[in-house]
Design a protein that fits this description.
The complex is a heterodimer of chains A (300) and B (613). Chain A has 300 residues and is an alpha/beta fold. Chain A has eight helices and ten strands. In chain B, strands 7, 8, 9, 11, 12, 13, 15 and 16 form an eight-stranded antiparallel sheet that branches. In chain B, strands 2-3-1-4-5-6 form a six-stranded mixed sheet, with helices on both faces. A six-stranded antiparallel barrel of chain B has the order 17-23-20-19-24-25. The relative contact order of chain B is 0.07. The chains are: A alpha/beta (300), B alpha+beta (613).
Chain lengths: 300, 613
């Protein structure tokens, strides 16, 4: 397949970002969320450091509510690609039985994702973490830097961001502070899919259409991934040909009805889409400015 | 498909800039249904368009921006047409956000400058144009907006464009195109307006689709800053970087700056694949045919056209920190891939961003622009910014807070330093010290006014003198009567005051003396700079630690009283900061120790080199 010049430029920029981070940070880690963006990020990192191995481990924050297929994919990738995988779960949250149903999506996300991430970064002493966020995803992300400075406690202050000119990234921090680095900042959802197609990057099968057991809630299709999903009165799982545009915790991630069963189908569907990918993310609708608030607290 | 076009939008709140960007996104179908749904809700809550959708709210992403109806920070937006893809950096227009506009301009190919047809070319238009020109944006698209409010008058439009072109030409901007638009209704933005039959040019979108980059970075001599050296095993050693200019092929001869060593390219990895050649914009790993010393921050260049290196420059500087730029203060500077210590040695003049006038200045405040000279502690390879953005840009980082405090654009290297050679002398510091039978050093007293520095320093010198040691005491007040009598008490003068005293103390240590310096020296950065002048073990930072309340109670010279009455400006502890030493070699607690005990404490320490415990 011919190399798309726009993808080539994005790839070169992402590689530059990875190398800059590695050259300046003694303790980096890559946040691995198993989704398509993480898969692309992993491939870019492998290219940036070839012929050597990845100079950092991957960290997955496991809320225990991920789709089962995601976990299976994660473990297979770690085996096949040979990267070092760290998995962290907020044990206290788990012991308290925090879940998206009884505690609400906002509290659940805070405890099992945001707090868990802070715990992992602090206990393992990582000063720099790569994340797969893109500026086209959400309004407050459109304003975030490629090298995003976090004050003590991983706080993001949108009004005190460091100016970021040219490709001169300021990587300096004092003890207790950290940096989040977003190599995919300038990629769009369409770019990610086209790159997956061009590079034949393996992804979780949940992205491809297949008959799956789902229930309809607030006009969204929620997949019954295991027996923990409490069925409401009158709810009965039905088989629908669905797929996911974005992957997260299954009770909070809606499927879309789609026949797209190959990457080429998905590319076509994405480029023609009339809704944003985060539409299926239930936590984004937790109120105006909800993503900005989550980020201030240390969410990715 | 063409390369992505990166553009910056400039204009003020009332010019309708966010509305225009929102319109581009909306018309090019980049707004998704769920985002539109959220926008309808937001429009009702914060919008300024009544029942209509307020497109500006699409762009203002931060909660504070939506609430206040202004753009605060740069937002990067993506949109595409069948012809081309775009990244818009949307920026705030107020003078207080000059730094944000410069940030957006630093990576832009084209500037879209908006103005209000009713107002014409205003001070703010000139400011925006000056900033984008300074950041090296060569192409401008001038959108004269709100044409509906001037009855789509062709004459009004022509007059504005004539004014603007005359001004832009002064800045060297020759690639200016102009068009009349109404962002609110979309006229001449995405469709050709029937309101302006006198305008035969392209729509805004067509202009953007057809814009050509101002030059091809693949042209010109090969240059690649080394970002990282990849050494996964003993067999492989590759130099990683993104090619800033030109092309390179296997077998090509290269020269490394600043060292000047030469080699040939043995192989090239683009991303992870072996290739025969590569060009500007690509991230590669070069393997050379021989073992040479190359490290991060070096620039690999075509051997026939090597890159210049220098440690002194003239540069254009934009200050971005709340803490003003002070000439002489030590900062960290980052050039392409090299971080070095250095300082702004001199501010030649400040540029009034509105008028372009050159004004005298001793410091630069937030959002101010100046022409400066820069001195760094080791040479860096560079090219003038207006020729090569990647090799001519640098940022200035505060040593304590690590904030990005300034952005610089190199103009040319200064040659002064290379013409003054160090004169080697036969009698050395060690020889002089041996004659005096002592180990020379500098005892640097710091503390608030009235802390007891002079008293303890005086007593210490008496003790040392009585012991037969050769000493000298440099007292803050005394030095200001002579050597430093041209200096006042502004931050810039205080920095220079300390710099001179530190240099004098260094000469005296070189002469073999025990030098006692008794200066308030309130700033950590300057004390660190003084320490850096000495050999390890030669410099003792002595912190005379007396609380402010106690100094004010003593007030031996009546200065605190004056400062409190407002008769004395920039007084340390009152309206100027004192930054306590974090790890002094000696800390004297004057509340619990008498001056005599304090002297004993210092003498005990003097028997050991500083840094040892």
């Amino acid at each position: 397949m011919a190399i798309d010049p726009i993808l080539a430029e994005l790839e070169a920029e992402s590689i530059e970002i990875f190398r800059e981070a590695i050259a300046t940070s003694p303790k980096p880690v890559m946040l691995y969320s198993i989704g398509k963006d993480s898969s692309v990020m992993l491939r870019l990192a492998q290219k940036a450091f070839a012929p050597g191995p990845l100079p950092f481990p991957l960290l997955h924050i496991d809320t225990t509510w991920k789709f089962r297929e995601m976990i299976a994919f994660r473990d297979r990738m770690a085996r096949e690609a040979g990267f070092r995988l760290l998995v962290h779960t907020n044990r206290e949250g788990l012991a308290e039985g925090i879940n998206p149903f009884t505690h609400g999506s906002e509290r659940y996300t805070d405890v099992m994702k945001t707090v868990a991430l802070r715990q992992a970064l602090d206990s393992l002493g990582f000063e720099l973490a790569f994340g797969g966020a893109r500026r086209d995803e959400e309004k407050s992300r459109a304003k975030e830097r490629v090298f995003s400075f976090r004050a003590k406690g991983h706080r993001w202050d949108p009004k005190a961001q460091r100016p970021e000119l040219w490709n001169l990234y300021n990587t300096r921090i004092n003890p207790g502070e950290s940096i989040r680095v977003f190599p995919l900042s300038n990629w769009t959802e369409g770019d990610v899919w086209q790159y997956i197609e061009q590079e034949r990057i393996p992804i979780v099968p949940l992205y491809f259409a297949k008959p799956r057991p789902v229930v309809k809630r607030s006009n969204q299709w929620i997949m019954v991934d295991d027996e923990r999903l409490p069925l409401e009165k009158g709810e009965k799982p039905e088989m629908r040909t669905v797929r996911f545009r974005t992957l997260g915790c299954y009770p909070l991630t809606a499927a879309i009805e789609s026949p797209a069963a190959t990457v080429a189908d998905i590319v076509r569907e994405t480029l023609a889409a009339r809704t944003s990918e985060r539409q299926g993310r239930l936590i984004d609708h937790d109120g105006a400015g909800s993503m900005e608030r989550k980020k201030q607290e240390g969410y990715f | 498909m063409k390369r992505r076009l990166r553009l910056i939008t400039c204009g003020s709140v009332d010019d309708g800039k966010s509305t225009l960007v929102g319109r581009l996104l909306y018309e090019s179908k980049q707004i998704f249904e769920d985002q539109l749904h959220a926008l309808r809700a937001d429009s009702k809550r914060y919008g300024t368009q009544g029942e209509e959708i307020d497109l500006a709210l699409l762009v203002d992403g931060l909660q504070a921006e939506r609430e206040q109806g202004i753009t605060i920070d740069v937002a990067y937006r993506f949109f595409a047409t069948a012809e081309r893809r775009f990244i818009i950096a949307d920026t705030p227009g107020h003078e207080q956000y000059t730094r944000n506009m410069a940030t957006a301009a630093s990576t832009a190919d084209l500037a879209l400058i908006l103005l209000d047809a009713r107002k014409g070319v205003l001070t703010q238009t000139r400011r925006h144009t000056r900033i984008v020109a300074m950041l090296g944006v060569k192409q401008v698209l001038l959108a004269v907006n709100k044409m509906d409010l001037v009855g789509w008058s062709g004459e009004t439009f022509e007059n504005i464009v004539r004014d603007y072109r005359a001004f832009a030409a002064e800045l060297g901007l020759t690639r200016v195109q102009a068009l009349p638009v109404s962002a609110l209704a979309g006229d001449n933005v995405t469709f050709k307006s029937r309101q302006s039959p006198w305008y035969s040019g392209a729509t805004l979108l067509e202009h953007l689709e057809q814009a050509q980059p101002d030059h091809d970075p693949a042209q010109g001599a090969f240059r690649m800053p080394v970002q990282w050296v990849n050494r996964p095993n003993a067999e492989f050693r590759g130099y990683c970087g993104r090619i800033a200019q030109g092309r390179i092929a296997v077998g090509g001869s290269v020269s490394v700056a600043p060292s000047g060593v030469q080699a040939r390219v043995k192989s090239i990895l683009r991303a992870a694949a072996d290739v025969r050649e590569s060009e500007a914009g690509e991230s590669v790993t070069l393997v050379l045919d021989r073992e040479v010393d190359v490290s991060r921050g070096d620039v690999i260049a075509e051997a026939a056209q090597p890159v210049e290196a220098s440690d002194q420059f003239e540069a254009r500087m934009l200050w971005m920190s709340e803490k003003p730029l002070v000439a002489g203060r030590p900062y960290l500077l980052k050039f392409h891939s090299r971080e070095v210590g250095g300082s702004i040695t001199h501010i030649k003049y400040r540029v009034d961003v509105n008028s372009g006038a050159q004004l005298a200045a001793k410091s630069l405040a937030l959002n101010e622009i100046g022409e400066v000279t820069v001195s760094i502690d080791r040479p860096v390879a560079f090219e003038p910014y207006q020729q090569n953005r990647r090799l001519g840009a640098f940022i200035v980082v505060d040593r304590l807070t690590n904030e990005t405090a300034g952005a610089g654009m190199l103009a040319f290297a200064l040659r002064r330093a290379s013409n003054i050679h160090w004169q080697a002398l036969s009698v050395s510091k060690d020889a002089r010290a041996a004659l005096k039978m002592q180990r020379p050093c500098c005892l640097w007293f710091t503390g608030l006014s009235g802390a007891g520095k002079s008293t303890i320093a005086d007593l210490l010198e008496k003790r040392l003198h009585a012991d037969g040691r050769h000493t000298y005491l440099l007292d803050g007040d005394n030095v200001r009567h002579g050597l430093n009598r041209d200096l006042g008490f502004t931050e810039a003068d205080r920095v220079e005051n300390i710099r001179r005293v530190a240099e004098v103390a260094k000469l005296m240590v070189d002469a073999g003396l025990l030098v006692i310096v008794s200066f308030i020296s309130p700033f950590r950065a300057e004390r660190a700079q003084a320490r850096a002048l000495f050999q390890p073990g030669e410099f003792y930072e002595v912190f005379v630690d007396t609380p402010l309340a106690e100094c004010e109670r003593r007030d031996p010279k009546g200065l605190y009283g004056k400062a409190r009455r407002g008769e004395l400006k920039n007084f340390t502890g009152i309206d100027s900061a004192y930054e306590k030493p974090e790890a002094p070699d000696v800390r004297l607690d004057t509340a619990s120790a008498s001056p005599t005990q304090a002297v004993e404490q210092i003498l005990a320490k003097l028997d050991r080199p500083s840094g040892a415990t």
